[in-house]
Amino acid sequence: MRSNRRNLLKSTACGFGYLAAASMAQREASAESQNPLAAKPVHFPARAKRVIFVFMQGGPSHVDTFDYKPLLEKHDGEDRTFDDARVLAKTKTITKHRVFKSPWKFKQYGECGQYVSDLFPNIAQHVDDLCFLKGMHTDGVAHGPATLFLHTGSINFVRPSVGSWVQYGLGSESENLPGFVTLQPSMGNGGPRNYGNAFLPAIYQGTPVGRAGVSALEAQIRNLTNPKLKSGEQRRQFEALRKINAIQKNSHAGDTEMDAMINSYELAWRMQRSVPDILDLSSESEHVQKMYGIGEKETDDFGRQCLMARRLSEAGVRYIQVNYGDNTNNPRWDQHSNLEKHADHAMKVDKPIAGLLADLKQRGLLEDTLVWWGGEFGRTPYAQANGTGRDHNPYGFTSFVAGGGVKAGFSYGETDEFGHHAVQDKIHMHDWHATLLHLLGLDHEKLTFRYSGREFRLTDVHGEVITDIFA
Amino acid sequence: MPNSPFIIAFVIIVQCLTLSTNERVLAEDTSVEFFEKHIRPVLVQHCIRCHGPEKIQGGLRLDSREAWQAGGDSGAAIVPGDDQSLLLKALGYEDISLEMPPRGKLPKQTIEHFQKWIRDGAFDPRSNDEMASSAKSSAPTLADGKEFWAFQPVKPPVVPDNLHEAWPKNDVDRFVLAKLEEKGIKPAGDAAKQNLLRRLTYDLTGLPPTKAQIERFITDKSGDATDKLIDRLLQSGHFGERWGRHWLDVVRFAESSGGGRTLLFPDAWRYRDYVIDAFNQDMPFDQFLKEQIAGDLLTSNSRLDRERKLVATGFLMLGPTNYEMQDKDILEMDVVDEQLDTMGKAMLGMTIGCARCHDHKFDPIPTRDYYALAGILKSTHSMNHSNVSAWNTVELPLSERDEDVFLASSQKLKVAEMQLAAATRTWKRMTGNAGGASVDPKSLSGVVVDSIDAEVVGAWKKSTSVQRYVGADYTHDEQMDKGAKSVTYRPKLTESGRYEVFASYSPGANRAKNVPYRIKHIGGETVVHVNQRNKPSIDALMESLGIFEFDHQREPTVVLATQGTDDGVVIADAIIWRLVSGAAGKELASTEESLADVARQQKAAAAKAEVDRLTKEVKSLKQSIPKRQVAMAPRDTESPTDIHIAIRGMAHQKGELVPRGVLQVAAWEGLQSVDTEASGRAELADWIAHENNPLTARVIANRVWYWTMGRGIVASVDNFGSTGDEPTHPELLDYLAYSLVQNGWSIKKLIREVVSSRAYQLSTHVEEHGQQLDADNQFYGRRAVKRLRAEDIRDSMLMASGNLDLTMGGSTIKKGTSSEYGYQFEGRRRSVYVPVFRNRLPEIFEVFDFADPNIQGGARMASNVASQALLLMNQPFVMEQAADAAKRLVEKHSGERHEMLRRVYQEVLGREPLEQEQQVMMDLLAVNNPPKTYSQWAMIYRLLFQCIDFRYLN
Lengths: 471, 954
Fold this sequence. Notes:
The complex is a heterodimer.
Chain A: H1 5-9, E1 10-11, H2 16-23, E2 50-56, H3 70-74, E3 79-82, H4 85-91, E4 95-98, E5 106-109, E6 114-117, E7 130-137, H5 143-152, H6 162-170, E8 180-183, E9 207-209, H7 231-249, H8 256-279, H9 286-291, H10 300-314, E10 319-324, H11 342-362, E11 369-374, E12 378-383, E13 390-393, E14 397-403, E15 410-412, E16 414-415, E17 422-424, E18 427-428, H12 429-439, E19 449-451, E20 454-456
Parallel strand pairs in A: 2-10, 2-11, 7-15, 7-18, 8-9, 8-10
Antiparallel strand pairs in A: 3-4, 5-6, 7-14, 11-14, 12-13, 16-17, 19-20
Chain B: H1 5-18, H2 21-47, H3 65-70, H4 86-91, H5 108-119, H6 129-134, H7 142-147, H8 171-183, H9 193-205, H10 211-219, H11 225-235, H12 237-250, H13 268-280, H14 285-294, H15 303-312, H16 314-317, H17 328-348, H18 367-378, E1 380-381, E2 383-384, E3 390-391, E4 393-395, H19 400-431, E5 438-439, E6 447-449, E7 455-457, E8 461-463, E9 469-470, E10 474-476, E11 486-489, E12 497-504, E13 515-521, E14 524-530, E15 542-550, E16 557-561, E17 571-572, E18 575-582, H20 591-624, E19 630-632, E20 635-636, E21 643-646, E22 654-658, H21 681-688, H22 696-709, H23 730-742, H24 747-755, H25 768-773, E23 786-787, H26 790-801, H27 843-847, E24 862-863, H28 866-874, H29 876-893, H30 897-909, H31 915-925, H32 935-946, H33 948-951, E25 952-953
Parallel strand pairs in B: 5-9
Antiparallel strand pairs in B: 1-20, 2-3, 4-19, 6-18, 7-11, 8-10, 10-17, 11-16, 12-15, 12-18, 13-14, 13-16, 21-22, 23-25
């Protein structure tokens, strides 16, 4: 049967389920899949139910955090030949650069003996829960391209973001909440495209809560509250709307679209009532707030984000992105000069992230929550332009993941002896995307959407699932 | 090279010849064993997944001897006997662009096995039997392709006969009814007059009917009332605003480049206005297409005609492009690809882009055709390179009179500028003012503390973007963490006394207006505020903070803080202390010195006056010169050339050279071939906008049908290929396409024909019987319920509130905007004039499925999501329009409630309230009795903005 394209394009509560089912040939259309946000069957058993992605915008340096390279110290100050990604793309030449040792000391932690620098004393306490991916590499030398690539798997084409694919694949666990939430996202480097649905139906787009540059205390979903009306007036208005729509619906008997529209008002009404409670952290005990560094000057803002992430994950949000970023073209971790500023950023995120890990664990949430920490790329082991900072390095860097089905106290992959290129057990960003979907029970080759005459997927024609890191 | 393949192969052959038969068998056995033991397992485990029957990456297969002998995109991977074989280089990770396997280097021993294997002749027992079956390509041939309906010539139509002869109003109806009768579907009745009026008014102009229009139409009982209405609407200037916006969807119109570092397109509005104007003028559609592809190459009969044609080519330039990309070869091919992809889908309904990397899998478009077209666009200069590249612009012609003024004034300006330069040099020599961006702190008299030597709290970002400043750079607070940042300047004064304190800063429109400088002096602390938007009055560099007395042993300081500077960026540059008089009151300079000083100062003042006079003159001359406007437009490159196929789409992997041309499957005999001296865009435009082209007229006729009827005859409006939908009414589609061409490609005539049909004017009422037979309404037995678009919703609310500004055309990006990030959409113009940025749209557009300008797409999505409900319930813009509408109502029409409610219903829904609705509304109005304030009415407006009958067209 030829499907009707107008229906295909609709993401109405009733119209769209058909498409979701139809384009995923491997999966059966169940009664629930009539609702595009209803929980959907997976391709194989899921190891994780949800994701919390802690995005470190700007590119934290791996050789100053988790990828210990003693050789940098040994050869500090020497000029050596490195195929710098930026120089190569622009001039197609390879030049010499000054080896630059890390200003921070590394120590071994935990039973696994993972090296962590002094930048992250709190996260270091959790290494036995973490799985380090030290052979990451990616596409894009500049922030814009690499940030879009991290989020959408594409530099130049407009593609849905990871969270949208996850929501499309899994549906939502909550009746009152969107399934994909991004906290205080940056407006720069692609901005909304980093949580956009692109050609997927709009219902799968990320819902921003607050934005970068505005305090976490003010973070809220847009238009969730009314600037003028008292709650009694709002209720009266809503009840009248129900009546009016019920009357007008009569003249559209048989058209399910009107029901979908009425449902969207009902969901909005429920969201108005439930979301503020979830984002309100005052009900959390002082002890928990302290774990996240809430109340301390440096960590208050990011700590609040991390705690909101936990509360959203408990409430059934599938994909939560926590953003440590800003709106500039040279975002936070981007220390082209004055590498020492890494310490400021580490200070702001270390305790909140450690708090999040501890809190998830003590609540048993870590078992089926996949925590992913990382930036859009790493940094060079040599000084940029013989200065005091490091340039971007897409060839090799470190991310870490934890929980939801990955090995704990484990390290996978290596960069070369200086930390410039990933050389062993490399994981391209496409591979990571494939692996992340796999952990959620989705086959990255089967999670497709038909658009413009062909099937599209997050990993395009690439991606290999890294089963070696599975617990 | 000592070990050339030839020599080694020779050695092997010689060796083989000298071995006895037995020995040869033995050698083969050991080779088999070696291969099976050391080579095959590695190939299976690490290589064949990507270089086997499934993926064939890089064109290379390693799953049989014949396969690798055929080589890959980069040539032979394995040359038996050759230590330099590409495969060995890849395994050895010798070249970063070729490291295999990609996940990590194989163990040293494994690599040595491969070296030995290849050195020994790369014996491989695997034959290609298994591979033969999967190698056949499934791409359709050209001959097969021409059989596909979309590539068949448009047939002159034969209008069908109907059983029910009285029903059809025109030929369109005869086609529709024939199908309905064939399927046994009884059409719905005609729409109520008020519904038809609202439907037509929105469909043709994007606005609601006014009260007067409603009354005129409802009371006009003449037989041609509807035809008169249609004519009036087609003549309205709002028609072009509505229909131009349709085309802007199709061509992914935007006013910024999108991507990571998105750049504004300050001249894109000209293209928007061109499109609106073309629809209003009913420009023949073939001409419209030609101008967009090759307007710069067409002859013009007047200056305005020339200008219009240049602006039209903006079509090619408006794509989403990541100009920041560092590899410019790839960037250029990406832009060409984007242009082709958009042109293909927008004008031909073809997904040409698929053929960039391989022959189109579903449509008869070989890779050759892609590069034949790509050669034309590669021979078109559409961007200029630098670190962040940019699109090409072309100066628009001036009128003859303006041209004369321009030349004369330009000459005068040149002279004045030269004089100014000379005068400035003189003045600077006198004052020792070096000018330029950076001022050497040593050249300044007094004690200078530059930002680099000051103590900072919080993050201060270095910058050199705006002139002028002291030292290497200045710093700013990034407009963040207001109140938490400060800079403290501690001068090393060598004596106490009265000092004048100066603060340097680089001014700008985004600066804070009230920057507090706290000066600690003997008398205590004084706070002086400086408006950093103003140009500093002293040498355009610094501002005086006043004269204070300092004790050099009591840590004199100036603290620059950021409290209360939320309105802009705070600049911290240098602070300068200049001694006015010493502690004991001794005068600073001797009389003699001061006399010389006075003379020097007088001379300097005269020089300065001359500089000022000339600066003014230059400025006024510049203002008087007619502005040469620019348009985003391409030109042909100096040396147009054919290009090579890029294997697998990779710009650096060259294949066969392909002559420029068009899609073979849609070509015909006698088609003009490309002039090799030019880009070929002229021929490309002629081919697309030609009545013989089987796609063009069908594609636009189908779009017109979609924009009026709510669904295309081919539902996939941008895809007429085999992966798209087939036409539900192929004869009707051909009839529309044929009529379009016969009527001189007049879009208005085509629209008139469709909307005059009975099929368009049917009721939306769902008949039980018809519902069963045609649930999707594919056969148009009733009117499809359409929704208001994002723009309609916004414009209608602005209409109701009386705030809509109906000015047409022009640039609408707020002056002084440098980036789309954080842009505030405050204007009250019609939605078609609201700037369209690729990373930032007005929320109402974003939420109500406005066309994503990053993607070519002629069909809008239709979503029902909670964010839409939240926006209508709570957004300040909606609240404001409802409030303003209510105020207007109460001021102008205060009267009987029922009468007022009727008026509100007419304004917003174009109809009278239903009995039941009236009940609900009256209950609301009765809450605060009597309803004196407008707030009850504001609630009524909000409710109507939220209800079904506002958001849908019946």
